[in-house]
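Database export, one record per block. Field names are fixed; values are copied verbatim from the stored entry.
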Amino acid sequence: MKKLFIASFFLWTFSSLFGQWTQIGPNIFQFTLNTRIAVDANGVPYVAFREIVSASTKVMKFDGTNWVVVGQANIGSGTVGGISLAFDNANTPYIAFFDASSSVVDVKKFDGTNWVNVGPSGFVSAISVSLAFEGATPYLAYSDATSGSLSVVKFDGTNWVNVGSPGFSSSGTDYVSLAFDGTTPYVAFQDFGNSQKATVMSFNGTSWSVVGSAGFSAGAAQFLSLALDGSTPYVAFKDSGNGQKATVMSFNGGSWTTVGTAGFSPGIAEYISLAIRNSVPYVVYTDDNNADKARVDFFNGGSWVQLGGYMGTGLTSHTSLVIKADSAYVAYSDGSNVFTAVAQKYVFPPPTGCNITASGLSNIQCNDNGTPTNPNDDYITFDL
């Protein structure tokens, strides 16, 4: 009994230090939009954004004390309409963005000194972009600025080449989101050929095919965000079929099913971003029910539960979520505070105890859900 008491007390004390959203350093920059966050292999957060006053695009990283500019202060000029930020497997940051006026797309990488073009500048025109990696190879999904059709390209070291046929969607698209299951790319999008509902497609090495049914959401879907848990795709979106609130759906191999309750957010949800940790989906969004402040919810197996408290002073926008190891990271533009770019971090607490059903203290392990497993050893271990 004494052994169990000591372990439980230690975990209770340790976990009390965790479980809150805390701001990462000072405010990043004022008068910003299109904030996107990514975290490198060393746990260093990077935030990309459009500076409203100068109409420039910047990337900054946290050096442990302050936010510092990465490379040149202006990566791309003009009114940027969308930004996607990601790292390759060599820990090199890449950024993709398009100009809201001309729709031309640029992809750049940081070479240690400057941001340099990846392939030719303005190689396509788009109204929505999403960047993801298969190892060292960057892939870009985009909605064509003229036709609205969906295409995916990858960089072969010299040029951007089509993955499958260009314009493979049946009609116009928006809110594209690209992710990988190993070497297989998946893309989610708002499908204008199916009443603007959500559709997901995957590439089989030759062609793109619909995953499940096209237009599977209850109503029109906006702010789509795609993530994979192993080979299981999840998609989060603003669901017009359920009060414009947030909905998450997953594909069970035969059809798309709702994760928990459809339209689970308290109010209208926008700027949705999805991530998965230990098979648990997490979603950040702005909540119209509370002055458009940002919040993160996670699915606990039965219902959606808020993670920590609200973020921002109000009118937050362009929320972005990344989960890395034991921490969640969020970036947003705080509209009630002169559109200041802010990043926050949540450190997941360790398990808080075991649901012990065996007698005695030996032969018990706990996983991170507090469930005893493998009762065959004479010690207690905790999987963090």
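Remark 1: The chain has two domains: 1-18+354-384, 21-348.
Remark 2: The chain has one helix and 30 strands.
End of record.
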